[in-house]
Amino acid sequence: MTIKDELLEPYYIDFEETGCYNIVLYEVKHTDPTHHLSRSEESKERDVPVGYFSNMESILKRIIFLKLAKQDEVITLKEYLQRYTNLVSEFSKFLQ
Fold first, then answer.
1. What does DSSP say about strands 11-17 and 21-30: parallel, antiparallel, or unpaired?
2. Beta bridge partners of 48
3. Are 45 and 29 within 8 A, CB to CB?
4. Residue among 26, 9, 22, 10 nearest 56 (CA)
5. What is the rounded distance in angstroms from the CA atom of residue 16 to the CA atom of residue 54?
6. Number of alpha helices (DSSP H) and beta strands (DSSP E) in the chain
7. pLDDT tens digits, 1-45
8. Host domain of residue 40
9. Is 96 helix (H, G, I), strand (E, B) or coil?
10. Helical axes 56-69 vs 77-95, angle rounded to 10°
11. Segment holding 53, helix H or strand E
């Protein structure tokens, strides 16, 4: 099973069975058009595994952390906590 949702973008969640069940977080990365692609890499996107998790709570916390970490700016602790709270709030709507 795979979970794709606008709220998760650019990530998605995949449930894999490899002896035991793993919840895998992938990031969809756009390939650099100046990068030389082999014949097997004709796509403009590639799925990169970010991590393997045993429960949904851990994976959602990781997505929130990654979404905040990708914002390339200097902010105060108060601003960070506010953004963190906003993202947790967005995810919580789906968990109720």
1. antiparallel
2. 27
3. yes
4. 22
5. 11
6. 2, 4
7. 899 999 999 999 999 877 666 899 999 987 766 665 555 555 578
8. 2-95
9. coil
10. 140
11. strand 45-53
**What single letter denotes the amino acid at residue 34?**
T
What are residue 36's phi and psi, to 5 degrees? -70, 125
- The string of pLDDT tens digits covering residues 44-91 is 788 999 999 988 888 999 999 999 998 889 999 999 999 999 999 988
Q: Which residues, in sequence order, are CB contacts of 51 under 8 Å at separation 6+?
A: 24, 25, 59, 62
What's the structural domain count of the chain? 1
Query: 3-class DSSP state for residue 51?
Result: strand
Residue found under tokens 């795979």: 2
* Eight-state DSSP code of residue 91: H
